[in-house]
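Researcher: Please generate the 3D structure of the following complex. Treat every line as part of one assembly.
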Amino acid sequence: MAVSPAEPPAAELVGVSKRFGPVVANDGIDLAIAKGEIHAVVGENGAGKSTLMSILYGLHRPDAGHVARNGARIRLRSPADAISHGLGMVHQHFRLFPELTVAENVVIGAEPTRGGVLDLAAARREVERLGDLYGLRADPDARIDGLPVGIRQRVEILKALYRRAEVLILDEPTAVLTPGEATRLFDVLRTVTATGASVVLVTHKLTEVLAAGDRVTVLRRGRVTGRFDTATTTADELVMAMIGRSLGPATPRRATRPPADGPYALEVRDLRVRDRDGVPRLDGVSFGVRPGEIVGIAGVAGSGQRELLDTVTGLRGPGRGDSGEVLLSGAPVRRGRHPAVAYVPEDRRGRATSPGMSLAENLIMGDQRTPALRGRLGLSASAVRERARTLTERFSIRAASVSDPISSLSGGNAQKAVLARELSRGTPVIVVEEPTQGVDVGAQEQIHALIADARDQGQAVLLQSSELTELRALADRVLVMFEGRVVAEITGEEAGDERLGAAMTGATTGGASGTTTGGTSGAAS
Amino acid sequence: MNIFEATFFAAVLTATAPVVLAALGGLLSSVSGVFNMALEGQLLWGAFTAVVFSYLTGSAWLGVLGGVLATVLYSAILSVSAVTFRADPVVVAVGMNLLALGLTAFLMRQVFGVGGTYTSPDLRGLPTLADLGLDVPVLGSQSPLVPVTLALVVAVALWLKRTRAGLRLRGIGQHADAAESLGLRVGVYRHGVVLAAGALCGLAGAQLALGNVTLFSEGMSAGRGWVAVVAVMLGGSRPYRVLLACLLFGAAEAFGFRLQGAGLPQQAADAAPYVITLLALVVAGAAGRRRQTVEAR
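Model: Done. Output below.
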């Protein structure tokens, strides 16, 4: 997109610094958003993106530096100030009122009235007008809590546009979207910039940056480490600026495939599960994972992954009307956590760790009855610490001390600790959910290598992830779930975004690898 | 005996009106995101101060006004501590309920020189509608505050649904941070509704002590404020449902009186409305849990 250099930037951050206690979040950052561009801001977790955007949106005040709009310095004391200056923000965690309608959510705070009474008809018309204009259709009378996340995001964007935002900030907008929805979102953003408004896109997905952005600013440790035009840059260059080095070779793929007809370490047969209201959540799921194989699970959130994984790990017992079996090495299991299944949950603070307890305690959790860890009276503190030190070294977990609470660790290190605990058990089966969510790029690499190691040790890995690149890099096969069924099985090499994305919305089934499970009909594409 | 005659409905309205007024206050607070459990104490305080002001001025209407203002003042304890200083509203409310009980009993001895129950021919009660020349069936025997109560239910419902401030209040209760970031003044709205709840409880107290009867006795709110809290829990943010829940309670109380007349022991009749409240809570609690699990999916 052509950007006239003579025009003052639509929004500008000049020499912005911000510290929280000893932590310098932003250190003299300059960022200029030109009129009509999509400007991506990328960086690892903790690079300072969120703080910078909070300053631009009036949530934080900078210690030094200032914000300008169209060349004129402005003072932002609150988001309300930012809104009145034509800035709009779509937060990663939506800020909608769940029990109000779409129209009410859009207009609240700037409501049209007629004779002192709310003019909801005018609000409805406005929602429809903006929806038509930008391709953001949403039923104005629908209540938010009944809407899928994709639509809720539209409402957030409508809210900003209704307030005449000329600079629209989106924080990790595609984290909750399917690939198809993400593409549609970028179309919308193009429509927005075509009207002369600007978009700031905060993300860590480099493919999106290159596909949708005009220019990119890269942050690392609170400073700008690179500015690029997407037309002339590459993903490698961006990674270099983000983490200060290039990524190592891609996760080592096994040279040899696991035997295609060997016995399953984990097998699921015709699993049918209903929730409390009798709605089917799993509708005849069957598959197997062989030793030394990684099987991926993909699907839009709520397609039955939760119920499947909870059943496999034994966290969910069979309810009324449920049927089917889970077999470990050919033997059926029924209820409760099984010692042969290691589990890395998605919910790191709720399920995977006990945040208030120390790193050492978290590392041995579940092994507390092991004789090697016991002293005369219960657990031996020294044996526990010793075990913890061994694990932190082997899995390169960075922590000041194993006695520190695990909640003081970074996301990546906490996740490595969970993996260390679960993988070191050497169980035949391991279930891994979202292993790199909220983890920076450097740690992602290490975590992928650890999972690949487990596979090479002959463990059967069931990997659920919403990051398709992750599934592509690690999984031998990807099972795509839709409405409680496995609608496609795609081998790792063939798992292109479009293939996976289409299957995730239930659009197609099957694949060249042959196996089509589940009910949707249709030829392999 | 035919229980469904005009006097029965009149008795239901008499029993219901104070509860409805207090519950409307609780509803407004809860819509704004402040759990107002201090209705019982405010109701009692309102009843006492209304009687005091009626006694001092010799006018029932000035008694009502005094009771309302004094209770707004009393509700400022909740609004200042829970909204300004972010104290736990439940803890504050427990304190306010206990304080009202002790303070009214103490002040009663100071002002009237008696304990237990105070009544006097000098104490002016509210006129009935019939006294004012409006001898309509059922309502005729009621104080003018009863039709005012019903009108207030409709007014609150319309205000919440159809006005700018009502919409904003609902938003504030559902996601205060989001409301704040849209420039809405969360604190101002919350102070406003907690004080308004005080005014409504003052009105409820005045109706109880000057409308239903013309006397003050220690602890005369007798759990009506708690029933109002329950009605808010049952009816949520919907004024008509809250009214319905209050009517259930009022009907139980009136029905209890009838049964008493028919020879049922007084204790059983007195207990009836509270038993019904308890049952309603259990049923609503179970339904609420089911709703939550559906939403959690």
